[in-house]
Amino acid sequence: MPRRRTTRADTGYGAFLSYSGDRDRAVLPLVQNAIEKLPRPWYRFPHLRIFLDYSGVSIGPELRDKIVAGLSRSKWLVVVASPEAAGSIWVDREIEWWLAHRSPETILLVLSAGSLVWDEGAGDWDRARSTALPPRLFGVFASEPVYKTIKWREDNDGVPRPDIDAIAVGIAAVIRGVSEADVKSEGYQQTKRNLRVANVAVGALAMLLVAALVAAFIALVQSNRAEEEARIATARLMASVSDTRMATDVRAALLLAVAAYRLDPSARHHAALLRANLAGSKVARYVATPADVTALQSSADGRAVVAGLADGQVVTWAPGDPATTSVGRLPGEIRSLAVAADGRTVLATDGDSIALWGGNSGRPDLDVPDATKVDLVAISESGKVGAVHRRDTTAAAGTPGAVDLIDIAAGRVLASHPTERALTSMVFTDGATLRLLDTNGSVRQISLRDGAVVDLSPLDTDNACGTGQDVGELSADGSSFTCAVLPGIPVPVLRPRPTPDAGRPEPGYVGVVMPSRSAPAVLSRSARTAAVPSADAGLYVAPVTGEITPPQPPPLITGAAVDFGRKLLRFLGTSETQLVSASGRLITLWDLAQRDRLAKSVPVPIVKGCNRCPPSLSLSPDGRTAAITGQAKDPGSSALNSDVVIIQQLRPDSSRQFSIPGLSGILSWRADGGMLVLAANPVSGYDRRVSAHRPSVQTPFEVAVLSSPPPSHTVRAAGVLSASGTAVSFDDRGRVFLHDLATGGVETEFIPLGGAVDTDNISEARIDAAGEFLVMRDADDISVYDLSRQEITHDIDGKDVQAIEFAGRHLLIQRKDSIELWDRTGSTRERTIVFRGDGTANPQIAAAADATVVVAKGATGRLTLFAADGTNLGELEPDAVWHVESAVAVSADGRYLVTVNPGPAFSGGADGTLIERDISPDGLIRTACEHAGTDLTDAEWNALMGVARPAQARCP
Known about the structure:
By secondary structure, this protein is α+β, with helices and mostly antiparallel strands. Helix 1 (22-36) runs antiparallel to helix 7 (204-245) and helix 2 runs parallel beside helix 4.
């Protein structure tokens, strides 16, 4: 009887699966799962642990190290033979490593596709007919080795599916050195042992019935578990591919993250949704076109984007609309198009014909002379005059073409001017002047008034951009153009001379060195800003200045493919921060001023008070109103004026804002949301208390101000008792005050004694939303105090604590390396979330009422979000500048994350901002589907995933 070999899960891998191709990437996770879940006694480790990388990403240094580590810890190498594996360099390298460190006898072949044929005469595999064998395995085996085959069977619907169990048993049997029958019978043998024990206890007849029921239940559970694990594995694959697409294709990342969450709505895929929604933060939205985009322009007013398509269509898109609108069609692929300032008149050409849409001409088609090709069109901002550049296909090299000036209304040619070289662009600088830029960098200007042609070239020599370097396009105002210079050289911006006799204009610079891609940069309409292609993916957007080397390079902007080579990137209208680009059948809108696609911003008149003085922020129980206390400032004054309370209505109507000047303190809400209570501080800068009162403000709820502590003291915490008309406040002297809500005056005052905390040296305190518990801390301890019983409930070690907060019936404690969740009495620690804080920061924590979402703010202002089980959902970049402290809150239902970011405290300083984000799964799905524009087509899905598309994996 051969000795059975088992590889324990804690010592290494039984086998390393080496494969290539989308087909095997979809099948092998199921094989891996089936092998590792082969029947075994519950108290034993799995017989085999399988190493499988199915991320599908490019191999880099980190993944290469991971694969080598997997090989070194594996007993067997399972080579999944297929034509794709035979052509894979990485399968070849894995086999090469194995042959250098292991015996060929520990290589098992599994045929997935193609063929394996042994040549007995040659004593080796037949090189011509073994189409699935990686070349590295020729000449390795002394005799024909045993190999397994993945068999496909049709299910009840006639769909072929792999026999996962059969190949799993076959692989496991070879690796463990036992027969397939033994592997299959292990589950049965285990059941027999259980039956014998049960038979002794209750009798043979009763045990047979129980065994049958148990076996049926186990089979059902195992079947459901297998389906669930397959579903989860597929969802994880979707999330993995989503992550790999975030830098280059945000749309695919968004749609795959939606599919992953809908297939497996877990915290892990909630995190994938959040990552995708935050990726490529400057990508505003996408819109699909009926065919590939070949030409792209934006109207001067920014209200219309016009695209020419490969099928001859011309479509327009109003940014923000869900779809494009077709305005007409030409017979061939659109080569060039132009649009008037208001977006209503469009001139386009496919090279052989010219068409005009809109305007008042009533003449949509313009004649093109025989033996000519049109490669460029232009139109004045008024839409009254057009220009067409024709290349004479029969002319000599010295006169390759001409520019025709066209009266749009009459549809007739006003004048023609020959051109000596090919043009890169034509621009009307006004209704009577046309500028031409040729491929040598020469600029000519044509006057429509008198037909005069003048040379405004920036240099007196040819090749303004250098020999062999591409010339870009004129900016929409005709004032500048760029060059595709040699890599590593700052991108120059050349300016035509204002007059023929003027001196050479000084060039500008974008402040980005030219990458290896040679496409020229794109200028905004005013030529004050340029977009430069990056070396591989994305772009840089930077101002045009006179500095060759700027003090700080601009950040790389990624998220969508940008076709610089085909000139499919434009600034939107007169904007310096919005752009449109196209690639394939997608148009992308970019917004550089956008924080991210989740952020909804509302201005609030709050400015910075001091470096460590964040505003106070409290959300109403329904999450629809934010109450803020902070510093207000008159833009015309250089000094801070006073404290202020801002009440800001949130969705759906954020236009309603109320202000209560001269007050500061701690805000809290009655449980039903019908009253906002301010536990006031003494008047800032004055030696007087604030009396209890009801401020005159027209809010949809009551507002009550509680009497303040004496001058020079401040409120540390406040709350409203849910079961009575009483509010409670706690000041920096360690005193608790019970207030009558009807009057705001103090009814009772006491000191919460009996705990480990020194009430004379309290550093932080909080009162829960129900007004029933007080938590306070000093440098060494935390004490929780029951306000209704007026007694300490528990003390907690507080030596490394950075922040404390209540969340519903939970107490959150942030330490240097974790966030602890306790019940609100401090008696039971419910769970711990790993989070590395920073002792030098002014940390903040916030959470939903049931602690299903926890948010922690670190030193740099970055927000880290956690799910109820401690899963890290993701991070948000700071909304405020580094030297301004922001406030953060989470709605009670965990749906909305709100931050308040003060404006700078200087004369004329801008308002602060309140930013609201819907971070719930359904909110993230809605945002993802809306901004993706259209769902993935079946062809796109197959190219990305290579596995069947689940029915629920779709938008919306």
